[in-house]
Amino acid sequence: MKKKVVISMVMTITIFCCTACNPETGTMTCKMSSYPTDGITLRSTYTAEYKNNIVKTLETTEQVTAEDKDNLEVYKERIQELYQGYQGIDYYQNKTEIKGNTLTSTTKINYEKVDTDKLIEVDSDNGGIIRNGKVNIDDLREMYEQNGCNCKKEE
């Protein structure tokens, strides 16, 4: 009987240690789209990789589809102005391109390596989610959901 109790305790401790030692990693995807208004449809997808609730990487894809292609040039200029301050920051990349009737802006941020102080310098609103140089996945989720996104975590 004692032997069974000891084995049971060892198994319980082993299971607890193994699950406590394994970092929680996962992916959170947030999506938002608009109904066509004035011939323009907006779609956004945000994908964050995280470990122990800290965001490692974030990739955003924002698309504007327009019936009138001339409107896309105006949107492209505005997006480029918006991201201009981030140019030259290592581990922060933004690419904007027009294909057909769709403008796509893709941003990739490696939060494990990027200088988060520089991100806050460019836009003080970044300080709302960056704390001690890190971004918490739950804070990011809350921000996106407040802006109308539907978010889903996958572990």
What proportion strand?
35-45%
Helix content: 25-40%
- Give the overall average pLDDT: 87
Structural class: alpha+beta
Count of strand segments: 8
Low-confidence stretches: 1-20
Q: CATH topology, which one?
A: YehR-like fold
What is the level-2 CATH architecture name?
2-Layer Sandwich
The arrangement of helices and strands along the chain is HEEEHEEHEEHE
Counted up, domains total: 1
Distance between the termini: 39 Å
Task: Please render the helix and strand layout as text.
Elements: H1 2-21, E1 25-33, E2 40-51, E3 54-66, H2 70-83, E4 92-99, E5 102-110, H3 116-122, E6 130-131, E7 134-135, H4 137-146, E8 150-154
Antiparallel strand pairs: 1-2, 1-8, 2-3, 3-5, 4-5, 6-7
Give an overview of the whole structure.
With 155 residues, this protein is α+β, with helices and mostly antiparallel strands. The chain has one domain: 2-Layer Sandwich (YehR-like fold). The protein is 33% helix and 39% strand.
